[in-house]
Write a structure and sequence with these properties.
alpha/beta; 500 residues; 7 strands; five-stranded mixed sheet
Length: 500
C-alpha cells in the first residue's frame, strides 16, 4: 500500500495534468535558454572549455529530474562549484576535474545515507533570508558587465524585456513572459542588426552530442590525495546550496521536499555529468526562480530544461548564438527582484535585533566573499552564539535563609550548561554560620559536563567550609549525566532528595 502510494506520488510529480505538463515544458524551455550564458560563464571561471559547463548542465538537469527530492528545482553547473576548482584545473588539468567530480558525487550520496540533510535544522530563518538576499544581490551584480559601456540599444532592449516580462502576464499566462521576451527581442535584434552582445559572444557553443568516457587519470593513491580535498569542498558547498535552494522552493510553492533524496540525487547527477565530460554543479536558485515563476512545478520542467538545452546545442547552435544578451539580462534582473525578500528591510526594525544582525551578517559576508558557504557558516555561528546567550539568561538561583540563619535553601531554575556555569557558580555564597545547604534542582536541567563540573566545584567548596550539602529534585536526564561525570555529587540513581 505504501509502495503504491509512493509510485502514485512520483508519477504526479512528473505529470499532474495536461495543463501542468504544458506549463512545465514551456518553463523548461525558458530555463534552458537562460542556462546557456551562465554555463559558459561558469566554464570560463573554472578555466575550462565552454562545453564542460554546458554538458554538465545538460547531464545534471536530466538526471536530477529523476533522482532529486525537490520537483521543479533546477540544478546545473554553478559558480559556487566552479570557483573551487580553479587551482585543480590550473595545476593538474581538466581530467582531474572530472575525477574530482565523480568523487564529489560519491561523497554526496554517502552524505544522504548518513542523513546529513538533517543539519539544515540548525540553519535559522534569519540565515535563509540573508542567503536569499545575498544571492539576489549577486545575481544582479553578475549582470553589470552587460550594462556597462554598452550601446543605447542594449539599455533599450533591457527595458523592453522587463516591460514584456511584467506586462504580458496581465494579458495572458498561456506562454511564460520570459520566453516571450527572448523571442521578441531576438527577432528585433536580428532584424535590425542592433549593436548588442549576443550569446555567441560569450564563447563558442559546442556542436554534436557529448560522449561517455572515463577520466584519463592514474588510478593511484596520489591521484586520490590530489582530488580528495577538492571533492569534499565541492560536495559540501553543492549540498549546502542545494538544500537551501530546496527550502526556498518549498516556501515559494507551499510544498515539501525530500532533502535526503536530494542529497543522493545531487551525487548521482554529478557522477553522470563527469562521465560525459562535465564539471560539478548543484541547485541554482536563479534558474529555479525562473522555472517556478514561469509555471514550472514538476519534474518534467527540470527534465525539459536539460533535454531542450541538449537540443539547442546539438541542432540549433548557430541560432542560439544570436540571442541578444539584453533579453537574458532582463530575465536575470527579474529574478533578482523576485528573489530579494523586500519585507526583510522593514523587518529589521520589527524583528529582535539578534535576528536582524544574523541576516545582515549573512548578506555582507556572502556579497563580500562571493562564497555562499562562508556567509551561511557565519550566519549559523552567529545564530548559535545568540541562542546560547539567550538560553544563558533563562537561568536563576533563588536563596532563602532559615530563621536561625544556619540553613540556606537554594532553588535553581533554568538551563545549566557551558554558557551559564559562571553565574551558577557565583550564586552559591553563604555566611560562615550556615551549617546546612539544600540545593533544589527541580526547575533546572543539566546539559553538559561543564554544568556537572560547576556543581562539583560548588559542593566541594561548601563542604570544605564545613557545611552539610543536600541536593534534591534532579530530573532523570540530569541525574544520568551527574551520575556519569560528577566527582562529589552522586544521585544514587534516585529521584527526589539526595543526601550527602
Amino acid at each position: 500500500m505504501i509502495a503504491n502510494s509512493a509510485v502514485a506520488r512520483y508519477r504526479a510529480e512528473w505529470i499532474s495534468d495536461a495543463a501542468g505538463a504544458r506549463r512545465d515544458v514551456l518553463a523548461g524551455i525558458v530555463v534552458a535558454l537562460a542556462l546557456i550564458p551562465e554555463a559558459i560563464g561558469f566554464s570560463i571561471i573554472a578555466g575550462v572549455d565552454p562545453r564542460v559547463g554546458l554538458y554538465a548542465s545538460v547531464a545534471i538537469a536530466i538526471v536530477i529530474a529523476f533522482t532529486g527530492g525537490r520537483p521543479g528545482m533546477i540544478s546545473a553547473a554553478t559558480a559556487a562549484v566552479a570557483v573551487l576548482v580553479v587551482p585543480l584545473v590550473r595545476d593538474h588539468g581538466v581530467e582531474y576535474l572530472f575525477a574530482a567530480t565523480i568523487l564529489m558525487g560519491v561523497v554526496q550520496i554517502v552524505a544522504g545515507l548518513l542523513r546529513l540533510d538533517l543539519l539544515m535544522q540548525f540553519v535559522s530563518r534569519s540565515v535563509i533570508t540573508g542567503f536569499v538576499n545575498a544571492l539576489a544581490i549577486l545575481i544582479f551584480m553578475a549582470q553589470l558587465p552587460q550594462l556597462i559601456d554598452v550601446s543605447w540599444q542594449a539599455y533599450a532592449m533591457v527595458a523592453a524585456g522587463l516591460a514584456i516580462i511584467y506586462l504580458v502576464p496581465h494579458i495572458t499566462r498561456a506562454i511564460p513572459s520570459p520566453l516571450v521576451a527572448i523571442l521578441v527581442l531576438s527577432v528585433v535584434s536580428i532584424a535590425t542588426g542592433a549593436p548588442v552582445n549576443t550569446v555567441g559572444d560569450m564563447g563558442a557553443l559546442p556542436q554534436g552530442l557529448p560522449s561517455l568516457s572515463w577520466p584519463d587519470v592514474p588510478l593511484t593513491l596520489d591521484t586520490l590525495w590530489i582530488i580528495l580535498p577538492y571533492s569534499l569542498t565541492m560536495a559540501a558547498v553543492g549540498l549546502l546550496e542545494s538544500l537551501l535552494t530546496a527550502q526556498i522552493v518549498d516556501d515559494m510553492t507551499d510544498t515539501d521536499s525530500d532533502k535526503r533524496r536530494e542529497c543522493g540525487g545531487q551525487g548521482s547527477a554529478n557522477i553522470v555529468a563527469a562521465f560525459f565530460g562535465g564539471m560539478g554543479g548543484c541547485a541554482m536558485i536563479g534558474q529555479s526562480v525562473i522555472n517556478v515563476t514561469s509555471g514550472g512545478r514538476g519534474r518534467l520542467s527540470t527534465f525539459t530544461a536539460g533535454a531542450f538545452l541538449l537540443f539547442l546545442l546539438a541542432v540549433l547552435g548557430p541560432f542560439v548564438g544570436r540571442i541578444p544578451m539584453p533579453a537574458l539580462v532582463a530575465i536575470m534582473i527579474m529574478v533578482s527582484i523576485g528573489t530579494f525578500s523586500w519585507n526583510s528591510i522593514p523587518n529589521l526594525r520589527r524583528h529582535p535585533w539578534p535576528s536582524s544582525v544574523v541576516m545582515v551578517t549573512t548578506v555582507v559576508v556572502v556579497v563580500a566573499t562571493h562564497d555562499l558557504a562562508q556567509g551561511v557558516l557565519a550566519g549559523v555561528l552567529l545564530s548559535g552564539i545568540f541562542f546560547a546567550g539567550k538560553v544563558r539568561r533563562m537561568f536563576a538561583v533563588e536563596r532563602t535563609l532559615s530563621e536561625d540563619g544556619t540553613t540556606a535553601n537554594f532553588r535553581v531554575s533554568g538551563q545549566i550548561f557551558f554558557a551559564s556555569v559562571d553565574r551558577f557558580t557565583r550564586a552559591f555564597q553563604v555566611e560562615a554560620r550556615v551549617a546546612n545547604v539544600l540545593i533544589d534542582m527541580t526547575g533546572a536541567h543539566f546539559w553538559d559536563i561543564s554544568g556537572v563540573a560547576a556543581l562539583d566545584k560548588i559542593v566541594a567548596r561548601l563542604r570544605r567550609d564545613g557545611a552539610r550539602v543536600e541536593v534534591i529534585g534532579y530530573n532523570r536526564a540530569s541525574a544520568d549525566i551527574v551520575d556519569r561525570f560528577a566527582l562529589h555529587d552522586k544521585t544514587g540513581v534516585q529521584m527526589g532528595a539526595v543526601p550527602h
